[in-house]
Amino acid sequence: MTAPDGRPEDAPAAPRRVDPVGAELARVEAALAARWPESKIVPTTARIRSLLELLGNPQATYPVIHLTGTNGKTSTARMVDALLRAFGVRVGRMTSPHLVSVTERIAVDGEAIAAEEFVRSYDELAPYLHLVDQGQDVPLVYFEVLTAMGYAAFADAPVEVAVVEVGLGGRWDATNVADGQVSVITPVEYDHTALLGGTLAEIATEKAGIIKPAATAILAAQPPEVLPVLLAQAAEVGASVARQGLEFGVADRRIGVGGQQLRLRGLAGEYDEVFLPLHGAFQAQNAACALAAVEAFFGRGGSTGRLDPELVREGFAAVRSPGRLEVVRTAPTVLLDAAHNPAGMTATAAAVGEAFGFRRLVAVVATLADKDVRGMLVALEPVVDEVVVTENRSYRRLPADELAAIAVAVFGAGRVTVELRLDDAIEAAIRLAEEGGTNHPLGGAGVLVTGSVVTAGEARTLLGAR
Fold it and tell me: How many whole angstroms separate alpha carbon 67 and alpha carbon 247?
């Protein structure tokens, strides 16, 4: 008699293969998870400054391009990274949150650092973490440790410039211990109001804190009450300012296969025939900000001349932004998008309608409990035929039954399906899309999985996206 795997039935079982790197990464992730989460904020940079001083202030050993805003930070950071690398610059990039693996948050030369390197970086910091923790009322929190790891990894690499995305806000954010040579502020909208303030002016005040003396501030198009706050901070610290729509912007935009064709007006002139393999008008606006940031970093503007247009085109053509209207399956088309507030969902809805033209679209939505869920659903409703509500695995998730009650109020009961698990929700949405869709090649059925970065990341894993 033989066992199903071909062994004699009485033979000992084959030893299980152990992934030592995976086990070590899990150990580090558990140690990080034991600290206060990044959603729990103590408004001080004292702890991170103490830690980095013990490490020799690695964040001061290279120039920094610093990004904040409400939406578009990660995509813009990836564009800045890709452009700089097209010009032969060695780049470190720090973004948050991650989609699938925590190692994504720290990237060098366009690639997330290896798990072995991530573990080594943490283990080298561990003795210093203990020293700082002992002297503080609150130990170093999750995001502070990751920030220190990123800054240290960039110094070790070494990189020639770090592109750093703020975790939350700006003024008190752990990343703000670095002085950005260029500060990029993407559109400021309502989000994290319990932590950043209940008005756009209050939120803008927090985000303006990354504008440092003698820096160049690259300002995306902003609501009327936001721009004066940002300009006041720039004037106070003596920073120069470039504003989207005045000093730079999008001169022309045409929809293309797999993205869009742009003509960008930079600080030093125009760049035409720029292909951006991302969808949506908002990504074109992000591209304009990224280009201006890179021009400012290289000291271009006015009479100093344009950057090499061919290298600009090469950089933008190489941009990828996982989880941002990312196609992970066809027939039917399945899109993943990390929109997690009303402004982001409004931009996503417009981009889906513009770029895909689905005859039938079913959304899968799972959100966090502390978000403006109704605002997101209201923004999504006009472009969606049906919605499947579910949950992600975050401890901050909104339970499916509570999400369903909000969805029914927005969509009506006949357009809402409830599934408790994300995998079941995706399967249900695909089935609903196929049942009511069409095989027309230019406008068939689609599924949009959205509502949170966590949701997009979990769906990427479930659907096998690389």
Answer: 18
- Beta-bridged to residue 266, according to DSSP, are 269
DSSP-derived pairing of the beta strands 249-256 and 259-266: antiparallel
Non-local CB neighbours of 214 within 8 Å, separated by 6+ positions: 237, 238, 239
- Helix 115-134 × helix 46-54 angle, to 10°: 110
**48 SS3 class:** helix
**CA–centroid distance for 30 within its chain:** 23
Nearest C-alpha neighbor of 463 from the set 422, 435, 433, 434:
422
Please give the pLDDT value at position 194.
Answer: 84
Fold observed for domain 23-35+43-317: UDP-N-acetylmuramoyl-L-alanine:D-glutamate ligase (3.40.1190)
Fold classification of 326-462 (topology level): Protein-Tyrosine Phosphatase; Chain A (3.90.190)
CA–CA gap between residue 281 and residue 254 (Å, rounded): 10
What are the distances in angstroms from CA 289 to CA 41, 372, 433? 28, 27, 36
Q: Would the pLDDT of 365 be above 70?
A: yes
State pTM to two decimals. Answer: 0.92
pLDDT at 62: 98
Torsion sign (Cα): 388, 391, 396, 401:
positive
d(CA 67, CA 80): 10
